[in-house]
Amino acid sequence: MARNFKLTLAYDGHDFAGWQVQPDRKTIQGTLVSVIEQITGEKTLPQGSGRTDAGVHALAQVASVAIESPIPLKNFRKAMNDLLPEAIRVLNVEEVVDEFHARKSARAKTYKYRIFRGEICPPFLARYVYHHPYPLNEEAMIEAAGIVVGEHDFTSFAAVDPEARKEALEVNNIRTVYCSKWQREGEELTYSIRGNGFLHHMVRNLVGTFLMIGKGNLSDKDLKRIVELRDRSAAAATAPASGLVLVSVEY
Predict the structure, then answer these.
(1) What is the CATH number of the domain that holds 172?
(2) Could you tell me the residue range of the domain that residue 29 belongs to?
(3) Which residues of the chain have pLDDT under 50?
(4) Which of 15, 60, 81, 119 is most deeply buried (CB count within 10 A of its CB)?
(5) Has 53 been annotated as catalytic?
(6) Across the strands, what pairs with 65?
């Protein structure tokens, strides 16, 4: 009888082509598939709470997977960490009810985006931040952050998937943001956002638009208008992946 496992993972996404399995490309999910098969002999497909993009990191991503093996939880975690590359660590393994699904059962997620503002970015930070030493009106960004709090249609901040265009009328891009804030932490300007779910590229597109406010190219009124337009072309370019990390998933 299969057991349903909840895996809590941390990973450095710099050298991976994102979460989702892709042919001939190194991904987080694909690496987990290979390691679990080595341990149990079973072919599985762990389901993540969300599909992080290439280069995006995670402090506590959650995945669920059903396996037949009777292996004890602690042994399973140790075996996985022994075989996984150092860039991926299994922090915790729990046996959960069959109905638990990492994505469908999630109630909220928190992401953080880090911008290093100093003139010279330390080498050991470079792959975890977006280095932007140029002038920014940080106060304007901090003041505008709250505009996206609440329930909104975030189409303006969703990646445009050409294959999904014909189904666009059926797509629900309404999400609820519980917290959105910018703050200075030493030489870093960080953005934290917590919501009930996020669209593809949504956080990075929001950050890109806030940066335009910081540069003086957009105002808080413009941001409100962009949200209302529900048009991806109205928002700014996508911010680099390196600064984004999935902090936590709530159930």
Answers:
(1) 3.30.70.660
(2) 3-96
(3) 163-168
(4) 60
(5) yes
(6) 5
